[in-house]
């Protein structure tokens, strides 16, 4: 990484950290100062306040840091980065679970009439986000941690799965940001609809919080998608390299495996030529007689 890229990377990383911590701080301050604080089932309205705080903590703060580990932890080996990446996701899971329990309890215990569950766009997007996140965690844990016990046999499979896992991870994060924004809009319409246009303190806090989420998505996309910010990985382990195929150095020396590969390639080419000749020449076509008339098959 060049000096300019390193400087830009440092500034973007600092900005991402400020936005991630700022998002959590703003949602906590909003719930404490303007929404009455937190409680459990004894007060459904205050129990609901756990939902935005825990969802932002899980899907945005911890999941965001989990993805940034592959950019920030450049001094550590790949196994350590994987472990830290997994630990961040493990910390996000209880936040998401308790946040879901809080919102379902709020709907079911609402007085005088319970609120229906899973009826809004926000809830549908939330279900998709939770489903993708759970699937990502299961696939990632199984493929990149559990399958390490069969390092050589699964090296090519894990290498092919990396871009898929990465793409779906970024998609899930962006979907989580969009879900948070729809949830904020829904909450504003239900609670401060009449005073929202006046842009008092609470509407300003909500808007600033929403803009923090938008900026987080933008900064994270730059850090995660630009190739110049990717970590320079070490050369693969010799066993993994062998599992992925012949290297140019060993192939040029024509070992036994190289001869076998060349023979296989020549065999496939010869088969292609012979089959094309047999199927294209009329002299080799089969004929059958039906009532004195010869027909080709």
From TrEMBL:
The keyword Flavoprotein does not apply. SMART domains: B561. It is a multi-pass membrane protein. It comes from the Eukaryota. The chain crosses the membrane at residues 53-71, 83-104, 124-148, 160-184, 204-226, 259-278. Its main location: membrane. Keywords: Electron transport, Heme, Iron, Membrane, Metal-binding, Transmembrane, Transmembrane helix, Transport. Pfam families: Cytochrom_B561. InterPro entries: CYB561/CYBRD1-like, Cyt_b561/ferric_Rdtase_TM. GO terms for molecular function: metal ion binding; oxidoreductase activity. Residues 15-225 form the Cytochrome b561 domain. It is found in: Membrane. One of its GO terms (cellular component) is membrane. The keyword Transmembrane applies. Its cofactor is heme b. PANTHER family: CYTOCHROME B561-RELATED (PTHR10106), NO EXTENDED MEMORY, ISOFORM A (PTHR10106:SF24). This is Cytochrome b561. It comes from Amphibalanus amphitrite.
């Amino acid at each position: 990484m060049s000096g300019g890229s390193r400087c830009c990377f440092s500034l973007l990383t600092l900005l991402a950290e400020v936005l991630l911590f700022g998002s959590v701080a703003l949602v906590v301050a909003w719930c404490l100062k303007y929404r009455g604080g937190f409680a459990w089932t004894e007060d459904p309205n205050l129990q609901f306040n756990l939902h935005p705080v825990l969802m932002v903590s899980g899907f945005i703060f911890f999941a965001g840091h989990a993805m940034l580990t592959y950019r920030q932890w450049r001094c550590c080996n790949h196994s350590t980065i994987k472990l830290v990446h997994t630990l961040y996701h493990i910390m996000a899971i209880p936040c998401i679970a308790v946040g879901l329990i809080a919102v379902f309890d709020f709907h079911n215990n609402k007085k005088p009439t319970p609120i229906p569950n899973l009826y809004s766009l926000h809830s549908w997007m939330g279900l998709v986000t939770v489903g993708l996140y759970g699937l990502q965690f299961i696939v990632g844990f199984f493929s990149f941690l559990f399958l390490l016990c069969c390092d050589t046999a699964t090296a090519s499979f894990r290498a092919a799965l990396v871009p898929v896992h990465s793409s779906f991870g970024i998609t899930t994060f962006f979907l989580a940001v969009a879900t948070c924004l729809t949830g904020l809009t829904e909450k504003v319409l239900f609670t401060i609809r009449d005073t929202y246009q006046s842009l008092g303190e609470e509407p300003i806090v909500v808007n600033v919080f929403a803009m923090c989420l938008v900026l987080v998505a933008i900064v994270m996309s730059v850090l995660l998608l630009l190739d110049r910010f990717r970590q320079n990985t070490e050369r693969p382990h010799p066993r993994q390299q062998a599992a992925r195929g012949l290297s140019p150095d060993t192939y040029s020396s024509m070992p036994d495996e190289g001869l076998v590969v060349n023979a296989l390639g020549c065999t496939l080419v010869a088969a292609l030529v012979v089959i094309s000749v047999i199927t294209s020449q009329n002299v080799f076509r089969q004929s059958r007689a039906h009532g004195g008339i010869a027909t080709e098959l």
